Amino acid sequence: WPVYLAAALQLNSITTVSIRSTLSKLFDGEEIGKVFAVLGIGQAVVALFAHSLLGVIYKAWLSVYPTMYLVPVDVLLAVSFLASIVSLVVVNRSTQRTTAF
């Protein structure tokens, strides 16, 4: 089941686009470049360490639960999904307050 959950939550390009879109609404025009730079650095660092870390998890759990390496991936994707929803709600509320005045 972790394989199917990871595939369902991944939607990699959609997630990246929605996160960047939401972030662009949360920050001023002068700050958005800095935010995207930090986001890009974070993505690069994760890409460097994820393969090794998931390999260690896979080797450690191979005899017990071979798909255990997908559990951290599922958790991180779920957290990312929830953070996107929360930030979308925050943007909608701030937009409604701005337009109400």
Query: Average pLDDT, to the nearest integer?
Result: 79
Q: Specify the helix fraction band.
A: over 70%
Radius of gyration: 17 Å
Share of residues in strands: under 5%
The main β sheet shows up as: none
Shape label: elongated
- Ends distance: 49 Å
What order do the SSEs take from the amino end to the carboxyl end, as H and E? HHHH
| Low-pLDDT ranges | none
Classify the secondary structure makeup into a structural class.
mainly alpha
SS summary, helix count: 4
Q: Give a count of the beta strands, DSSP E runs of length 2 or more.
A: 0
Please outline the helices and strands:
Blueprint: H1 2-10, H2 12-26, H3 32-61, H4 70-100
Helix pairs in contact: 1-4, 2-4
Summarize the structure in words:
The chain has helices spanning 2-10, 12-26, 32-61, 70-100. With 101 residues, it is mainly alpha-helical. The mean pLDDT is 79.
Give a quick rundown of the structure.
By secondary structure, the chain is an all-alpha fold. The protein has helices at residues 2-10, 12-26, 32-61, 70-100. Helices cover 84% and strands 0% of the residues.
